[in-house]
Amino acid sequence: MSPTQKLRTLHAVLAEGEAAARIPWPRVVVGREAWREAVSLLRLGDCTLLGLWAADGAVHMAVMDEARSEPAVLTIACEGGAYPSVGHLHPAAIRLERALQDLSGVKADGLPDPRAWLDHGRWPLRHPLGGRELPIEAAPYAFLPVEGASLHRIPVGPVHAGIIEPGHFRFTANGETIVRLEERLGYVHKGIESLMAGATIERGAILAGRVSGDSTVAYAWAFARAVEAAWRFEVPRRAASLRAIMAELERLANHLGDIGAICNDAAFALLNAQFAYLREQVLRASQRCFGHRLMMDAIVPGGVRADLPQDGATTIRDLLALLRKQFPELVELYDNTVSLQDRTVSTGILDPRLAKQFGAGGFVGRASGRRFDARRAPGYVPYDELSFDVPVREEGDVDARVWIRIAEVEQSLAIVEQLLDRLPVGAIAAALPASASPAEGIALIEGFRGDILAWIAIGADARIVRCHLRDPSWFQWPLLEAVIEGNIVADFPLCNKSFNCSYSGHDL
Q1: Cis, peptide link before residue 124, omega less than 30° from 0
Q2: Which contacts of 148-151 are long-range, i.e. CB under 8 A and separated by 24 or more positions?
Q3: pTM > 0.90: yes or no
Q4: Listing from the earlier edge strand, what are the strands of the sheet with 152-156?
Q5: Choosing a second label site near 91 at 20 to 30 A (CA), which of 222, 322, 324, 417?
Q6: What is the CA radius of gyration of the chain?
Q7: Which residues of the chain have pLDDT under 50?
Q8: Residues in CB range of 397: below 8 A, 6 or more apart
Q9: pLDDT tens digits for 303-360?
């Protein structure tokens, strides 16, 4: 495309491609020129990147038209095992392309950072989703060089104090002021996509629910909806409502825990203890109603595993009453504690332009002005019939991320109340097809961190050919590096917890 040629819309780019499937989003096979046009739309902010993965000698890119809130998938064949880099023009794709390189062996022509990402040189095979080559001796990881007088490095992790997953943080500082943070992740890579290949749908659902344990409901729901989209059937309305109740309970538990943990990192242990108590009440109610504190394996393709017990609605209503009584008192204490506000206000500011460029989801994006919630657009049942707000702030600091969580707690309480008031009667699951033709499906579900993408290809034997799951943390971890610059080292725990990115969900 020449510099003077006007860039086409995503709709026009898709119209000239070869339609491959509708899953339920359109998937279109495109050539290199159309692929580069789509990448340019990402660079300009007209589209948002939702996912990037490889399968069957091709790379698939899920994008969303920002003006229409319409998602689509572009597919490009990897000629000679390579394709035009997305990260060359759109930095949000760089780590995804580095992971593609490690997992599938495909090369992104023009990728600005070709270093290995998930593969630390300790796997029994290289490119487990591609050529499956024998490992080679890996050179030490080349961290970015340090230049300038009076700079020093502070390495942290991958092993951390307390109960926390492993990840390495390398700070470059001038005194106590952080000049740059570089992350290295991949320490909890589990080979989820390799384990999925050839698995039954039932086994795949179990694996999906274990990608990131604190989001087990959201992952299981995303996987289930992708399967249901592939086989083109809808679950019973009661099952959809029970799924939403579980998802909102999961959101409540995590937001309550996060608010308390942020306060704890600012040395306010009292609030941490009080929010931990409320989180515990949510977990206990979840155990009584759905058989597991985290509601693991409660959502299955076709519906849900079990119905609410006879006293389930009463248990949840009692929980809502407790939270409505005690939560506002704790919020008032947070708001009126000057020493706490001194630590959170104006700390770790995420520029709204960066939030938009990286498609930051959940409280990270909404605290920096990005008004996106997958429950609204593209939307899914039963949220299309519910009344709720999507809170947004512009400040982009730790305090704003706390207040978004606070507002989302209040919205989740109202959502669960609506779901209980209008809970349909009837079946809780539909039988999966006994046999089916090869198919593929895709889904986007709003977890507590943000949008979770699930794509699946199913064979004629009803087994999984390939499945790709994308955590919101892929687009949030790089932003943590940006927000910490210019802050003091002691404020990193606050910034880190205010993001609360998933290590496990990112590392797959």
Answers
A1: no
A2: 148/174, 148/179, 150/174, 150/175, 151/179
A3: yes
A4: 152-156, 168-174, 177-184
A5: 222
A6: 22
A7: 1-4
A8: 344, 345, 346, 347, 348, 349, 350, 367
A9: 999 999 999 999 999 999 999 999 999 999 999 999 999 999 999 999 999 999 999 9
